[in-house]
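Check the record.
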Amino acid sequence: MKVKKINDWFEKFGRFEVRHRWAFLICLIVVTVVGSMGLGRLKLDNGEEDWFDDWETTKQNQDHFEDIFGSTDSLLAHIKADDVFDPEVLQMIDELGDELLQNVPYAGSITSLMELSIPIGTEEGFEVTSPFKDGVPEDAAELAQKKAFILSRESLVNTLVSADATETWLIVNLEQYSENLTDAMQKIAPPAMKIFNDPKYKSDKWEIRPAGMSYTEFEEEAVTMNQLATRISLGFLVMLVCLIIFIRSLRGIVVPSISTVGALTTTLGFSGWLGIKGNNSMIMITVLLSMALAVGYSVHYINSFKMYFRKTGRRKESIVMGVRDSGWALFFTVITTMAGMLSFLAAGIKPMRWVGGITAATVFAVFAYIIILLPVLYSFGKDKEPDPAFADSEGATKSDLRVEAMGKSILNKKWITVIATVLLAAAVIPGIFKIKVNMNYSDMMGERTPYIKRLLEITRSQLGSQYEYEVLIEYSDEDAIKNPRVLKNMDILAERIGTLSQTKISNGKPRVSSVTKIVKEMNRTLNEDNPEAYVIPDDQDLVTQIMFLYEISGGTDLYDYISNDFRAAYLQIELSGYDGEEIVKNLAEVKRWVAELFPDAQNAGVVGQVVQYAQMNGKLVRGSIKSIGTSLIIILVLLVLAFTSLRTGFIAMIPNVVPIVLIGGIMGYAGVNLDMITAMIMPMILGIAVDDTIHFTNHIKYHFELTGNYRSAIENSYREIGKTMIMTTIILCAMFAIFLTSTMNVLVNIGWLSVVGLGSALIADYTITPVLLYITKPFDKEAGVAGREPVAESEKSCETRF
């Protein structure tokens, strides 16, 4: 494929575009207006359910569990005080619980020190009572007695209240909500926040730390969107400042801005018209890439235009020459970048598929805006006399000539470049195998984020945990859970789970809860409160009697862990933290034990948020590998086809692989986890890095077709677009460096990984790419003619065609 022939076609297109500039401009405005009208229909959320298709086993198991036991969501308040049995603290807990119950949607019941169901022995047997059903006693001795009684209950200590009485939970049990989590949290969290922030609940005597899935998800979304909006806005301002410094042209500043906003508005608007739901976290990739490409495309075209304008002084001719020299390279970078983004469709994850599709569309839209707006807007204005200072340099500036001199030096030391590249690859590749996949939101957000700091304080407390999962045991027969063997096996399972690395331990006891605690507590009560009777009875009739007596005595906790027909029960396991790889190992052990202890169960397995995260870890690894691998293969095929040379395609891939290898190696050595955001960095960097590679390689091939000499072609390319590559990289690195100021670890990681990736891609483009092209000579045999090519005939006659 001859680059010169393609460039000639783009020259014709540029001439046609300038002649019909008003038609192009009006069409662009109409498309933008129509697209923007669809923004009101656009739906974005961050629902984790989107990571699972309905047919997946994980989703089916979770839905089945919630059908039996209701919502797994709750609103929590971790309360810390010198003594949580202090009358003022208890009174606050009572008032806070009542207010949350009355004002928070879906609030079903309260579990707290003020709302307990504890069996106590009576002459008739036992009754279920709440120690504070008549309020907080004024008598200190009576209060001390109730405190001692509660702390004597093994089922409550280090579960609801710490053994030293410095911590306790207030739990608002939420009813099952019909809408998805994203919609539900918008109803649940705001009124709860208003209550928690009420001045009457602030005191030196206690500290209240709110938590709960819907509550913290709401906080996460608010913090994330605020951080993203702030950093992207600052990045946009940095982009404008850099364009002012480098371009020094009003049109060169306005067009990238309009192109970014217009492309996003149009594509997202049409997404709204089509009813396609998106992900509000993943959209960051689309915004960042559109900003980056708008800058890159604009700078390449503007610098090409300016070079000809300095040399000829003829505006329209220079516009056409700018389209001729940069049009094909820009269009080809669009194709390769779109292909890289569309590779996300192979990931098998809804948010990644969406961001891949919408970003590919936005990339094309950015190109359309740039290729229309720049030639059209630059076509307005007068010609000027050619600048005599550039007569000998063919429009090249002093900085262009310095870049050319640097290129000559690189070619002269070509083997040093090859050796350095090989040594660098050998050093960083082992780091890739050290990368860990971990979807831990605490690590992603970072302790500098206020709500994460609060959650980590809860996790590090005696009672707190951030993550949990459930083990479901379900039989086909009613009353199967009343079988003592089943209950005892549940206790055995709880003991084994307590030995796992991620299980939370409080004062030597694993944080595993189930119906067995209630049965053992009642059995102890029936046996004169003998601690040795805190066991599961061997007689099924006695177990049945205990459960019946507890129920008719007013106990409310029994059905928290067991179904109404006694066919199903579950264990709740709280975790000390979240290590993705360890969790996967832990869950594998739990599944093995469940199969061993409950072989006749109809359905037995693990469910819950942690199981979803573990599944997401696996999907993320597979999705990222598929995406990156597919992207590299597609781009390689396109490069081979475009340059009609297998060797050229492979050589052009090197500067695109370098940043991926370098980023992967650094992540592994630095202990930066691969999560759903950092997983998007490599394809995004690949999409940006491939632009300069294509421009540079395409330019070298074009000049080789004109001169027949590799060294001359490479040196001419350094001179004509070398400075442009530096400018675009500096601007993009400055934009991404803004993310280093974020309090969120994941955005900080995006910042420095992007800077490293883009910087390394530029260095590779400047060094190893031209060196390998010079060494391997993949285009054709040299004609033996050195030097700069003569001015093309089309340039000489172009002025007469307007």
